Queue: 4 jobs
Job 1
Amino acid sequence: LGLLANLTKSITEAGASIFAAQIKTNESGKAINTFEVIVKDADHLVKVRRALEMVPGVIKVERLMPLKEGT
């Protein structure tokens, strides 16, 4: 499988749903994959992040937006 397939597989296997995705490359040719995922709570988010960090080829996993209040 390719990197994108491995990323989406790790998200779904961690029990999260992908709401939106954006994939692009930077000037040096590295892929930047941005996913909006639906998680149950902060602990679930940690589980998803760890799953993504374990995918071969992943350099960094960042949280770009905070959880909405009350979720």
Job 2
Amino acid sequence: YQAYMGEQIPTQISFDNARIQANRVAAERDMSLDDVLALVDDATSRPLFGFGGPKSVNVVELNDALEAQS
């Protein structure tokens, strides 16, 4: 997953951004979309009690999980 913003490389991207990239990642890694989306869900942090902001995805954790599948 790509998370580049300017000169800094953030460790989090939005859940929506991760889902947008899922088709590309699945194709590049020869994985099913369902498998990629399951890994996205596993790497997703949810706001406390469902409040306080959008869900975010830990890019480092997600990329590690994708590598483990290869």
Job 3
Amino acid sequence: FLLYEEALKRSPENDDRILLLAVRQPIYVSLFENGIGKILLESQRLQLVVFDADTEEIKQWIPPTATQTS
């Protein structure tokens, strides 16, 4: 994900795009809420969209923290 994001930034025709990572709700809970992914959310410019695959509904939108965007 981070490598792809960096490649987009270096591409003149895509440098204004924002990359989002979509994850299923159980993955978010196990990896980003309770697991090692929590460190990634705290330290990177990661934007997440958490969704329920069964209902095809977005459950949560997690923008980068204020310190990550600067």
Job 4
Amino acid sequence: EEYRYAFQEMNEVLKEIAQENQTQLFDLASQFPPAKRYYTFDGLHVNEEGAAVKANLFADYLIKNDLIPKE
């Protein structure tokens, strides 16, 4: 579980950097469901279903924040 602490610490640093640079940051860690069904056997990497959830969360963020050029 040591990697989880390191991951949380890294996320906090990223948030600080984004705030200091007045830029947007998508905080996947706060949005991604913790359900085990989205992870591979190691509990760290997402499986195919988890990757789809991750992609949808990113896409929703991009669209919601007008970060994709409109045709």
